[in-house]
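User: Please run a holo structure prediction.
Assistant: Happy to. Please share the sequence and the ligand.
User: Here you go; the ligand is 3,4-dihydroxyphenylalanine.
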Amino acid sequence: MVILQEGQVYKIITDKTQKSMTFYITYVDRLKDEVFVKVFSPFSLYEGFRISTIENKTLKEIIDFEKIKNFYFENIPFSIKNKIGKLLYQKENHPICIVKNKINDFFEKYDKFEFQNPMVSVRNNFDNLLIPQNHPGRKESDTFYSENKFLVLRTHTTAHQTELLKKKITKFIVTGDVYRRDTIDASHFPVFHQVEGVNVLGSVSDKVVIEHLKDTLSGLIKHLFGNDVKYRFIDEYFPFTNPSFEVVVEYHGIEMEVLGSGVIHKDIMKNCGLEGQNGWAFGMGLERLAMIFFDIPDIRYFWSEDPRCLSQFKAGEFTKFQPYSKYPSAIRDISMWITEGFEDNYFFDLVRDLSENLVEEVSLTDSFTNPKTNRSSKTFRIKFRSIDKTLTGEEIDKILNEIKQELINKDYEIR
Ligand code: DAH
């Protein structure tokens, strides 16, 4: 089945002439089954054009990753762009895919979706999920927006929830890559993977839904961690569920949050044409699970193309990862005067972009405002360490100088 996505490029074959036409969708009104499209063809560029019941026509989805990277998201850091379309979750011998399959096995009877295109509308990623305008997740320092600001690289797989519910698909699992500007350390990377699960149970009470949700998630946790796992549900808040819960699992004596969940907000059900029905949803990240199950010490290994890393994993097997070596680290500090609007995440992006993942961690070590001049300064500590080679002092200083130069270009003064 083809699920029409805003921002997605499609090829349509017209019934009569069998001619094909390529277009991209600006807006889908799923309740009326109408889509508004922009057409790319050698002869014309129609805009705001409306096609009704398009799904009965022969439709082929084409994901033009180059267009996504170099047209819609031309503005985002290169280090992020080059992850788009890598589809780690579909590479059968990759740890992310192995964990995905393990989860999918548990949800045997659920419809499975994998939308390879991570570009979604702001509406689907935020508005339709009742995420308020002032929510921090909407900030440009957290989310990658397209140049026209209508599209984002999905920040969670929940972005697909309402479009599926509107199509009356009510029991499903969605897996995909998600994107967030973030800190740099062993467990954070601006591209990671999530699974979203939804189950609409019918016209039942919240109590019934909560019980079903807790039973299902308890089963999932045991399926993943074994029957003796210690876990608990804690109350949480998410704009799109009410009530909401988090599941915390104790692993080697340390508690960690593994998923968010709850009863789907009544307004979402109503907006999706499911008034009176009740159901649950959950969302879970895959990297953290994979790091535990495979003993992977640094999140950068998931993106490694080194055969010494890739060859260690086989579909269906949970083997322990053997780091080929731990290479030495080197520390460098950068202090600078910042100006209004500076966000730490921009600095992290810049470091990632210029260091090509040779940085293991960045931390803010000092921050102060000079009371006389009212100028603010920040000092970041950068820990360089490659996961697959020893870095030379020259290599490190070259990167450091590039980072400094880029800051100077952006009008920040290095101290
Ligand atoms: N989308 C949330 C996140 O990215 C996770 C989540 C929480 C998904 C609660 C859900 C949910 O479906 O009900 O952190």
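Confidence is low (pLDDT under 50) at residues 41-48, 52-57.
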